[in-house]
């Protein structure tokens, strides 16, 4: 009888560690061979965005000129306004940055999941701040914020993926990602940090084991730490490591701790070298596991993801592009199209920041710009009152209703990967079109630009850009803005812009172009897919001039116009239709 009881215990422990059967996973997102499936066993393609900047700020998101760790930014604020008001700022920041309105909007736009980049210090104290050594103090702020997200995602029937973005001590040499202080022991330097990470995941599992809105636990974001020769000057971020033993060992340990409590949720793993080096990580050790990879600034062809498709086949487990973004709309549409063609879910980065290549842009007002100028050494130190007002206004600007929503970015992520059709960006007003309001759509249909994305990783570090002017839209079209106008420039031969417009009255019109050039140029104009003018334009000596074309018969209602650059570099501001 004792022997039989022992076998039962061993079987119980085995199934609790390997941890998964479809029979006991009713209602939860889970894996089925190479797919992620819902409670009904239906294939799910995760379409999500990560909430970078919410619990964990990186310096580039705030446009600061110094080191990118959050603690450095926080210390810089504290020197200006004091500790108490700094804490008030961070409380307001987290209160405003993500609200139910944000999640409601994501659902409306077409997303079905959210990735929460967690900072461990909102859930527990750092090891060197614990009152009692090797004990864990649980902080309710992080759990409270997570609970709110769970409720908002549940109301929208969306999945929430918990992502340990900043682990105790920091998990990599890229210190900005995890808010790592290099003067203190890293996650890999002392066992106490690893014990705390395991304990935190166990606590998260205790609290959320029955929560079906939680889609997965993403154990360690982008580890980037060489375990094989870092001190000898070898590449330090773990891209070339061949064994990755400490990483695998820790992830197995975390998984075991979770499975002691939670048999329901998918576990997401990431390789070394910013998530993509899986040398030594396989074979998988759990039956409900997802292999994540991150993709930035490389080509969007099958070769760029082939190794992960091979991992999917070899491990009989789904793969997920857990992070990508920070590029142009053309790159976004191509990358997402590639993922969905291969039945790979994806998650973009980030939802919002101080910058335009994301769905939501946080505005920079005069007060915060003065702070940035001060930190650059280009302005006087603000008073405590001025700095406090500026930083609190920044927190207020993070609300979605106070931000700029970039619908072109959203269209590139949701519609363009599945459609080559163009659609109007903005309606025509007073028989004129602003040059920058060309149609929404793919490169090659709504516009053509010779440098439409940034492929610097694939090009060996050669930096490129999409919109060289950096204004207004996130396509390859080069748009500039000054106090007088928003205009298209840096034109190259063969590039074009496509417009869909509506005329309330048909008849004979003259089309006029507002252009500034410093050389002779030539353009071609098509209306409703028919060329009606190849127009040579003389040097305007840098002055804005209205250039008339031949007359053309335009129909009442919807028309299209294609404006193609044949030769010369010039500035292009407007099109207007003069009825004759």
**What is the count of distinct domains?**
2
List the uncertain runs: 1-24
Class by helix and strand content? alpha/beta
User: Whole-number radius of gyration?
Assistant: 27 Å
The number of helical segments is 15
Annotation, overall tally of beta strands = 24
Global outline: globular
Range of helix content: 25-40%
CATH architecture of the largest domain: Alpha-Beta Barrel
| Terminus-to-terminus distance | 102 Å
Protein architecture, described:
The chain has 580 residues and is of the alpha/beta class. The protein has 2 domains: 2-54 and 98-227 and 234-362 and 398-409, TIM Barrel (Alpha-Beta Barrel), CATH 3.20.20.80; 420-579, Jelly Rolls. It is built from 15 helices and 24 strands. It has helices spanning 2-18, 59-62, 70-81, 83-97, 100-109, 140-155, 175-178, 191-208, 245-259, 272-275, 302-315, 329-341, 366-375, 384-397, 407-414; strands at residues 30-32, 35-37, 47-50, 113-119, 159-166, 214-218, 266-270, 289-295, 319-325, 345-349, 352-353, 360-361, 404-405, 432-434, 447-448, 479-481, 486-488, 496-503, 507-517, 521-527, 530-537, 545-554, 557-567, 570-579. Helix 10 links the parallel strand 7 and strand 8 (289-295). The longest helix has 18 residues, at 191-208. Residues 1-24 have low confidence and may be disordered. This is Cellulase family glycosylhydrolase. It comes from Christiangramia antarctica.
